[in-house]
Design a protein that fits this description.
mainly alpha
């Protein structure tokens, strides 16, 4: 399994687009939604080991644009148990 280096799957989602939808087309479409070229390139190059993150409103735009859920944009998953499986901590 290859090592995960980027926090988000934007590079993979861009690669998976049909060849007729090149990078310039993607940039033009995202600019209509308020995401600049610079923001796109900065967002897709965020490494997993840095604290930078894409703001929620941009994540929603990316999710809608690539027709995925917001969770599918991430290259990792946080290990959070469902509330029904968590133990209640007693107050001291």
């Amino acid at each position: 399994m290859p090592e995960i280096t980027y926090k988000y799957r934007l590079n993979q989602l861009l690669f998976d687009l049909p060849k007729s939808k090149n990078t310039e087309w993607v940039i033009a479409e995202l600019e209509k939604e308020g995401i600049s070229r610079r923001s796109l390139f900065r967002d897709k190059s965020i490494r997993i080991d840095v604290s930078a993150a894409i703001p929620g409103d941009r994540l929603l735009i990316y999710a809608k644009f690539f027709d995925v859920t917001v969770d599918e944009l991430f290259n990792y998953s946080k290990k959070i148990k469902p509330a029904s499986q968590r133990k209640v901590k007693k107050a001291a």
